[in-house]
Each structure stands twice: as structure tokens, then as C-alpha cells.
Amino acid sequence: MTERLTYEEIEQRFVGEWVVVRDFVPDDAKMIRHGVVVAHTTDRAEAHRALYTFEGPFAIWWVGPLPGDYCGHLSFFTRNA
User: Fold this and answer.
1) Cys bridge to 21: 2, 13, 35, 57, which one at CB 3.0-4.6 A?
2) Long-range CB contact pairs, 21-24, < 8 A, 24+
3) Which is more confident, 22 or 77?
4) Going edge to edge, which strands form the sheet with 56-62?
5) CA separation (Å) from 7 to 49, 69, 79?
6) Which residues, in sequence order, are CB contacts of 76 under 8 Å at separation 6+?
7) Could you give the number of structural domains in the chain?
8) Domain span holding position 7
9) pTM of the entire structure?
10) Count of CB atoms within 10 A of residue 47's CB?
């Protein structure tokens, strides 16, 4: 999937999934206004494996209530080769 969505659209479509977004535009509060969803999955390990398929900035987060003992937040990173 490589579809540009707003943060609100992502939060509605992918409840209960890890979401990886690239080519995002943050707002003044450093939250995502919109971006390109490059991966979404219920499997945390699979989501993290997807991060190694590209370089550059990305954001990753769990959509919805956090399962188990996860502590959650929206995370921004840049991966270099």
C-alpha cells in the first residue's frame, strides 16, 4: 500500500494495527497531518521489518487502544543504510 492519507483517515482505517508512514507532513505540534502509508499490520515484528525496506524519515505507531503492557506514542525516525 502506498496511499496518502490524513492522520484522521489512518486512525479510522487501521484500528488495531501498527502503521508505518513515509513522506509525511507534520503540523506545528509535530503530529502528522498526512503521509503515505507504506505498511500496516497487527504484527509488531512485521511492522518493524518493514522499516528496513527503505531509508529516510518515517513515523510508526499503534492505532487504537494499546494491547498488553505497551506504552505508546507516535515515533519519528530516520533510517540510514
Assistant:
1) 35
2) 21/58, 21/59, 21/60, 22/54, 22/56, 22/57, 22/58, 22/59, 24/57, 24/58, 24/59
3) 22
4) 3-6, 32-41, 18-26, 56-62, 75-79
5) 22, 24, 22
6) 26, 30, 57, 58, 59
7) 1
8) 3-79
9) 0.81
10) 19
Q: Quick one: cell of 34?
A: 498526512
pLDDT, tens only, 32-78:
899 999 999 999 899 989 888 888 888 888 898 776 666 556 665 56
Contacts of 7 (CB under 8 A, 6+ apart): 31, 32, 33, 34, 35
pLDDT of res. 15? 94
**Residue 58 corresponds to which cell in the numbers above?**
518515517
